[in-house]
Amino acid sequence: MVNDHNIVWENCLKTIRGNISPQSFKTWFEPIKPIRLENEALTIQVPNKIFYEWLEEHYVGLLKSTIRQEIGQKAKLEYQIPIGKTQETNISARKPTHNTSNTAFVAADHIKNPFVIPGIKKVKIDPQLNPDYVFDSLIEGDCNKLARSAGMAAARQPGGTAFNPLVVYGSVGLGKTHLAQAIGNEIVKNFENKNVLYVVADKFTNQIIQAIKNNAIDELINFYQMVDVLIVDDIQFLANKQKTQEIFFHIFNQLHQSGRQIVLTSDKPPKDLEGMEERLISRFKWGLSADLQMPDFETRVAILDAKAQQMGVEIPYPVLEYLAFNVKNNIRELEGVVKSLIFSASIHKRHIDKELAKEVISNHVSTVHKEITIEFIQQMVSDQLNVPLDNMKGKTRMRSAVLARQLSMFLAKNHTAKSLKTIGETLGGRDHSTVIYSCKAVQDLMDTDPGFRKTVEELDKKISINATVSA
């Protein structure tokens, strides 16, 4: 039997390297130092308690067979953890404690064989989630399709997809918190053994400050190491907080390397985050960054309808249309308007109609949008292209009239909620297939003719400006 601890450990590493991934080997075994070999007991020094706990939980079987192969069947493994610059402590296998401290390990002068002692009992963590934020109440549209789909995939297989970390970003009120917590709630529902934790970045910073005050940073880090799914909301608030970023970097690395799921939200994509360490930004880019955009008209109608139904109220479709036309900033504002509309109808004992909707909107949004009509668009196109309305609506095949007719259909489709059939009927009784062809023709011309594209963009802007008045 070889008695040199360096040679024994080097031989062990050769075997271990062949049984785990290169990344795991680099993370968990390269930092280990062999200290001594006495009485068939190999002592190794690990950087901290987290290393010790991780090795015990995930690699004890591999260590057991490898060391016995080198030393013999009575081989023992002892851990040594440095404390400060000069002190060292020997750690026995982890055992549950029954005192009031947060300690999850037991220190001992003499090491016991960790191969035969069970691991620490897992502590259940309060996920801090709002049970109302679920996927069923998160309406899908083009504005959030990618982020929602990635979130559902991560929830079905936490830590087991390419979406780790999953970074969801977008402006205020677009549903970042709803989506992030929906992921957490889905995991809690389907994986009883997984610890999920939702925390806002500001709260995380406050935890760091308190831990520094109480000299309890290690305990805080150990707590976060017990999390299987970490959801951090508004990560941009860690900007310019060096110590907080340093600790979060450590936690992020440990969780990610151990296959835990990380979900982050931000008001900007990772590349645009300011005041953030580059090493953190680079890690945020490891997984998927998915944006949430402003919901389109159809999605806004669906959101309004779903919110009303949640509150047990049926809102007439024309009212939903009116609200969707006039409230475009974000989902939070949409929900606020629905709640106010229903509350006003209840208090004043009125029917929910457009008149009541107008009154409510005037108190909620700084601008009110006129309902854009097909006739309004046709007049704008007629003025811009200098083509009489009669020619646009008639059967003439003059190029100028055909182009104006097609452009009117294109803009009507983009700016109104009218059906293709209705749009075609207002332009000389054309059918919906003609409208589809016309819209494609306009798009193709825009793609090939910069001058025509500029004309369309100017018209689009004029329609939007003329449709908006101060509330």
Explained architecture:
- The protein has 20 helices and eleven strands.
- It is of the alpha/beta class.
- Strands 6-7-8-5-9 form a five-stranded parallel sheet, sandwiched between helices.
- It has helices at 5-17, 22-28, 49-58, 60-71, 145-156, 176-190, 201-213, 217-225, 242-257, 278-284, 297-310, 317-326, 331-347, 354-362, 374-385, 389-393, 399-415, 420-425, 432-448, 450-466; strands at residues 33-38, 41-45, 76-83, 87-91, 166-169, 196-200, 229-233, 261-266, 288-291, 367-369, 468-470.
- It has four domains: 5-116, GMP Synthetase, Chain A, domain 3 (2-Layer Sandwich); 135-291, P-loop containing nucleotide triphosphate hydrolases (Rossmann fold); 297-369, Helicase, Ruva Protein, domain 3 (Orthogonal Bundle); 374-470, DnaA protein, C-terminal DNA-binding domain (Chromosomal Replication Initiator Protein Dnaa, Chain: A, Orthogonal Bundle).
- 51% of the residues lie in helices and 11% in strands.
- The protein starts with a helix and ends with a strand.
- The protein is elongated, with a radius of gyration of 31 Å.
- A hairpin with a 2-residue loop joins strand 1 (33-38) and strand 2 (41-45).
Task: Describe the secondary-structure layout.
Blueprint: H1 5-17, H2 22-28, E1 33-38, E2 41-45, H3 49-58, H4 60-71, E3 76-83, E4 87-91, H5 145-156, E5 166-169, H6 176-190, E6 196-200, H7 201-213, H8 217-225, E7 229-233, H9 242-257, E8 261-266, H10 278-284, E9 288-291, H11 297-310, H12 317-326, H13 331-347, H14 354-362, E10 367-369, H15 374-385, H16 389-393, H17 399-415, H18 420-425, H19 432-448, H20 450-466, E11 468-470
Parallel strand pairs: 2-3, 5-8, 5-9, 6-7, 7-8
Antiparallel strand pairs: 1-2, 3-4, 10-11
